[in-house]
Amino acid sequence: VLGALPETFPAPVLVVQHMGAQFMDVFASWLDGQTRLKVKLAEEGETPRAGVVYVAPGDRHLVVASSGAMHLSTDPPLSSQRPAADMLFRSLARTAGSRAVGVLMTGMGEDGAKGLLAMRETGACTMIEDESTAVVFGMPGAAARIGAASLALPLDLIGPRLVQIVAGAPR
Fold first, then answer.
1. Is the Cβ–Cβ distance between 140 and 114 less than 8 Å?
2. pLDDT the model gives residue 112
3. pLDDT per residue rounded down to tens, the chain (171 residues)
4. Which residue, 45, 84, 95, 137, shows the most beta carbons closer than 10 Å to its own?
5. How far is the C-alpha of 49 from the C-alpha of 110, rounded, in Å?
6. Cis bond upstream, residue 83 (ω within 30)
7. Residue 104: helix, strand or coil by DSSP?
8. How far apart are CA 117 and CA 102, in angstroms?
9. Whole-angstrom Cα distance, residue 52 to residue 82?
10. How far is the C-alpha of 29 from the C-alpha of 79, rounded, in Å?
11. Residues contacting 129, CB < 8 A, separation 6+
């Protein structure tokens, strides 16, 4: 998905990955080599910038505060996860509303489904990875079951669709 985004992508990208804290630096570094965008671990108080991918550090929830700055929270895990996609999505529903786009891809469990629904209810574009390409359809399937996704796309079409959406194409 990130590899399909151009160097001039006009929005920040925030990523929550369920992975052990000790691997997050290496993961962000690896991602940085896979995309034309700059990839880094999110930092407390930093304001997300267009064209940069911010990865939640291990064992911290990534949320966006009303000021627009990123906050790294030690609140308890949600759905047994910290970081949890639900925390990020709920914060984006509150702070960005219809200006946000939420994407939920392959993964076990239900993390992200309720947060994605909160985003959709504020008018945000919400999409899930289609079952045809998801290695594990747990998380996107949970979102589909509760009506959280406005769109389901195969993995290879998510990045190009994001480019269209931020360019002003209908959601």
1. no
2. 98
3. 999 999 999 999 999 999 999 999 999 999 999 999 999 999 999 999 999 999 999 999 999 999 999 999 999 999 899 999 999 999 999 999 999 999 999 999 999 999 999 999 999 999 999 999 999 999 999 999 999 999 999 999 999 999 999 998 887
4. 84
5. 29
6. yes
7. strand
8. 10
9. 22
10. 27
11. 103, 104, 105, 106, 140, 152, 153, 154, 155, 158
Task: Retrieve residue 36's tokens.
Answer: 């034309």
100 forms beta bridges with none
Amino acid in position 140 = P
Nearest in space to 101 (alpha carbons), one of 84, 83, 122, 81: 122
Q: Residue 41 contacts by C-beta under 8 Å, 6 or more apart in sequence?
A: 24, 25, 28, 54, 55, 56, 57
Is residue 139 within 8 Å of residue 109, measured between CB atoms? yes
> Taken in order 158, 163, 166, 170, is the CA torsion positive or negative?
negative
Number of other CB atoms surrounding residue 46 within 10 Å: 16
**Residue type at 4?**
A
